[in-house]
Amino acid sequence: MAKDIQGFGLGLAIKFSGSEFARKYKLRRPAEKLAYASTKKGFEVIGQMVANKKDKKSGDPMMLPEPSTAGLFDLTLSEEQQMIKDTVRSYAEDVVRGLAHDANEDMKLPETYLQDIMDLGLNYFSVPESLGGAAQSYSPTTNAIIAEELAWGDFSLAYATLAPVAVANAIVKWGTDAQKEKYLPTYLTETPVKAAIAVQEPSPLFDPAKLTAKAKKTKAGFVISGVKSLVPFGGEASMYLVAARYKRRNRLFLVPGDAPGVQWQAAPAMGLRATATGTLTLDKVLIGQDALLGDDSFNFEAFLDLGQLHWCALAIGACQAALDYLIPYVNEREAFGEPISHRQAVAFMVANIGIELESMRLMTWRAAALAEAGKPFHREAYLAHLLCSEKAMEIGTNAVQLLGGHGYTKEHPAERWYRDLRVLACVNGGMHL
């Protein structure tokens, strides 16, 4: 009612101030002042009415209470997660980033890299406290944060660091008690573990649901044959977690790296060059009866989803590194007498990188949080990987573009980010969050 009265009075005042009569007798300005005063007073009256109504409702016992925020999705890191994030970022900045260029050029890990990075204690965080480790619970969200911060230093070196951890994560998640007691204590020794998950196969349009690697049961254990690609560590891994078809299901098998019939051949890829990727061939490899990971409750789809989320976290870290590198560059680089960030095309491109990066992080953390809570997360993991695959490649391309001719040279790391980020759309498995 008050709004109707205010609108009616305001309309009359405005109509009068614009009339010929007001102009002739010089009443236009007083009419405009009256319209302004009536508008201001009207809003004050309405505001008071709304406040009174709200106060009345707040004391009404028939009104529902305010909704509780308990149980809602919250991205606020715990004190422990924040400490881990800061520690890993500091290590990535002080150590990993400085090694990235030479490791990429040499196509191998720095000689003492895996030994040195054990100081971070990531191996201990992969092993439950009951077995002597430091992990209080299985936390995909915390693992995603670690992957993101390491990849901020370098995508390829982060992959090399986390590939053995991914094997431990899979054993913790899916392994039997006997398998955990057998394999996880090796992560607590002073010697770094070289282990890798082998899912990808060198076939066009590879579908991880249709594996060509096969496993058969024998009296002594299992016989496994197949070919896997993009396997890291230059054939020096002590153990491979191999995906193969067994009894019409896709399962994982723990294969010793030195088992007879295991062969490795170098096959450098476009990215991930520091990890010395290659092709793993298994020719009728005989493995023990306890080599089949887990029991019949094993979920291959969830295993792949957790792997894709791990790749997403690595991509987010590399994209964040690109954004942090580009912002000062476009602000300091001058063209035509001013910073290139003054150009809308440049400013909008940088802003879009920030927007897409936050969406990638949100969707990945959301899927990881659902997995951690034991809830269905396949849809969220698929959407997160789809988004990260597309936007990571876009951000890598734009990083090269924004650096101009410099982006195409090895003087700046953009060309390395571009090559590494491309792997998201090409690889299936190989990691486990």
Automatic annotation (TrEMBL):
Gene3D superfamilies: Acyl-CoA dehydrogenase/oxidase, N-terminal domain, Butyryl-CoA Dehydrogenase, subunit A, domain 2, Butyryl-CoA Dehydrogenase, subunit A, domain 3. Residues 303-429 form the Acyl-CoA dehydrogenase/oxidase C-terminal domain. It holds the Pfam family Acyl-CoA_dh_M. Its cofactor is FAD. PROSITE patterns: ACYL_COA_DH_2. InterPro entries: Acyl-CoA_DH_CS, Acyl-CoA_Oxase/DH_mid-dom, Acyl-CoA_Oxase/DH_mid-dom_sf, AcylCo_DH-like_C, AcylCo_DH/oxidase_C, AcylCoA_DH/ox_N, AcylCoA_DH/ox_N_sf, AcylCoA_DH/oxidase_NM_dom_sf. SUPFAM superfamilies: Acyl-CoA dehydrogenase C-terminal domain-like (SSF47203), Acyl-CoA dehydrogenase NM domain-like (SSF56645). Residues 78-189 form the Acyl-CoA dehydrogenase/oxidase N-terminal domain. Keywords: FAD, Flavoprotein, Oxidoreductase. Residues 196-285 form the Acyl-CoA oxidase/dehydrogenase middle domain. It comes from the Bacteria. Belongs to the acyl-CoA dehydrogenase family. PANTHER family: ACYL-COA DEHYDROGENASE (PTHR43884), ISOVALERYL-COA DEHYDROGENASE, MITOCHONDRIAL-RELATED (PTHR43884:SF12). This is Acyl-CoA dehydrogenase family protein. It comes from Thalassolituus maritimus.
